[in-house]
Amino acid sequence: MSNNYETTVKTQGARGGTVSSDDGRLNLNLSVPKAIGGDDGPGTNPEQLFAAGYGACFQGALGLVARQQGLKLPEDTTVTATVGMAKDDVSFSLNAKLVGHFPGMDHAQAQALMEQTLEVCPYSRATKGNMVTTVSVE
């Protein structure tokens, strides 16, 4: 498979370290949340980064699905991604909740778009069968 795009990010120091991209655009400190035994320092964490990526990717795929159906999404459409970490038999597992906000759009139509996008979004496809992901409309 030939990639249309790829990026490289180096991690140093695990959850309490740093992450930086090869192009210099990403350079962040990491901190471990108190809820999983950390000091809750000022840095971000992998779950926040995953939620940001998932939400952005999902919203992009949402636009694609809407266009394929001849629909125009409201300009102020948003997707809020919540990523959770739960203890399981091995260590921890991730789960995600994606909530769409579609001002002025019919609720049932918006929910159908969210569900259809779950089948198209690259993050959803990559995690399908590996983590529980739910979609809803506020």
TrEMBL record:
Polar residues composition-biased segments: 1-11
InterPro entries reported for this sequence: KH_dom-like_a/b, OHR, OsmC/Ohr_fam, OsmC/Ohrsf
UniProt-listed Pfam families: OsmC
BP-aspect Gene Ontology terms: response to oxidative stress
Region described as Disordered: spans on this chain: 1-24
Family: Belongs to the OsmC/Ohr family.
Protein name in UniProt: Organic hydroperoxide resistance protein
Classification lineage: Bacteria, Thermotogati, Deinococcota, Deinococci, Deinococcales
